[in-house]
Amino acid sequence: MADQHYYHQAKDHTSQAQQHGQQALSNMAGYLQEKTPPTQHIIAAAALIPLGGFMLVLAALTLTGTVIGLAVATPLFVICSPVLVPAALALGLATMGFIVSGALGLTALSALSWMISYIRQIRASGGPGIMGEARWRVAQGIDRLGEKTKDLGRGIQDRAYDARAHEVGRTTA
């Protein structure tokens, strides 16, 4: 008798633990659904990261090309011509290279900053904006496609019925 009592107590504790575990799992799933970013943010990040990376790569390549060109050209200018002309040319090229490199990097950061502020503005306004209108148009197109499909199905059924009636009429005559 005592064994059955302990068995029922253990079974009750097990079922309670399972209920608590299921409740914790559903709470965690709800929390994760609340914290997942909207699709618009994921798409924006997917567009921002490659664009910013590409601009930063261009800035780095320009800087590297400038430094290498300066390192190669400076000795040639010093050996082949008077000192002041190649020095001025090398200084001008180096300055231009650094400016272009900085401008490309600044452009990349400005583009990223603008896109992030635009997304925040859309989110703060609460309006769906372009994405909401696009979703609405796609939904309208899908509704029209569904109606056309139904009409086409009815037309095919009518033709099949007419053909069958015609076939039955031929065999009986």
UniProtKB/TrEMBL annotation:
One BP term from GO: response to freezing
Question: Which Pfam family, giving just one, matches this sequence?
Answer: Oleosin
Q: What are the TM regions of this chain, as residue ranges?
A: 42-61, 68-89, 95-116
The cellular component terms of Gene Ontology attached to this UniProt record, alphabetical and capped at eight, are: membrane; monolayer-surrounded lipid storage body
Q: Which UniProt keywords apply?
A: Lipid droplet, Membrane, Transmembrane, Transmembrane helix
Give its localization. Lipid droplet; Membrane
Q: According to its record, how does it sit in the membrane?
A: Multi-pass membrane protein
Reply yes or no: does the keyword Membrane apply.
yes
Asked whether the keyword Transmembrane is assigned, the reply is: yes
Function statement: May have a structural role to stabilize the lipid body during desiccation of the seed by preventing coalescence of the oil. Probably interacts with both lipid and phospholipid moieties of lipid bodies. May also provide recognition signals for specific lipase anchorage in lipolysis during seedling growth.
Member of which family? Belongs to the oleosin family.
Q: Which PANTHER family match?
A: OLEOSIN, OLEOSIN 20.3 KDA
Q: What is the official name of this protein in its record?
A: Seed oleosin isoform 1
Question: Which species expresses this protein natively?
Answer: Fagopyrum esculentum (Common buckwheat)
